[in-house]
């Protein structure tokens, strides 16, 4: 069966490609000069950052468009988790259960009554698309589920995640849905700032209560993020997969007083699953000096009118095309220096043409 084709995203604004620092405006690999090479991964784009300071330690195509799959659920959490009472009891409707058959679900039943906290646990542990629909409906207020998706896009804009657009609350593929490794890091950092989110993302198992509706018994659920079970210091994160997106992953871990975050998009499951690729990148990040930075996750209040940081990254950087880097949308690999040079050449040619017109040539 042929793999689904990627829809064309909007053109990548060069200014937006440099958000977080000019070194991040590359479709290839960017790391600090003199540090160890990052591990080989199949992800088409990735980023490693310090969750506390927001310093970007390295990446590959950090601003390249990608398809999110279920890591998009983090944007749902960032948008509506602060506004919902975890103790509120809600009733599941028929429309809440309208999602792609066979896709991930926590097993909510029509007419069942669940706490909002149970919904968040179902979302984070089992990647429940049914839970995503309910939470989006609640977060959307009178706008319902569509209002929840609108809130997600408004939150992306507020965070400065300008290459992110949600079409579904669950991350199931929808028209015009995309994100980037850099944007995912912004979104995940906003999520981890909430104690409730850290508790949900870090839970290894939970109980879904019995329901009078349909005589449904209670049952346990386990977190499907293997980083949490098998990586020392793991704080949690989110996995994702669709045929279109391939494997996506967001994970955070703490070691020796440092807390790092990894995001990756477009990975294959062989020779290693997405979470293991994320773990390898975390290991690499923990091995770097604290000052080995190539950019910054920019808080909304610190972005200027062009959505760029006002200062450059701390250390010298190396930028080069990534070996085997794949992208369905890239028209050309443009490093920051080449981009600036091209703009200068175009400006010079424009002035010369204007001069010739004035001279009658």
UniProtKB/TrEMBL annotation:
It holds the Pfam family Peptidase_S11. It comes from the Bacteria. The chain crosses the membrane at residues 329-349. Keywords: Cell shape, Cell wall biogenesis/degradation, Hydrolase, Membrane, Peptidoglycan synthesis, Signal, Transmembrane, Transmembrane helix. The keyword Signal applies. InterPro entries: Beta-lactam/transpept-like (IPR012338), Peptidase_S11 (IPR018044), Peptidase_S11_N (IPR001967). Residues 36-268 form the Peptidase S11 D-alanyl-D-alanine carboxypeptidase A N-terminal domain. The keyword Lipid biosynthesis does not apply. Belongs to the peptidase S11 family. This is Peptidase S11 D-alanyl-D-alanine carboxypeptidase A N-terminal domain-containing protein. It comes from Plantactinospora mayteni.
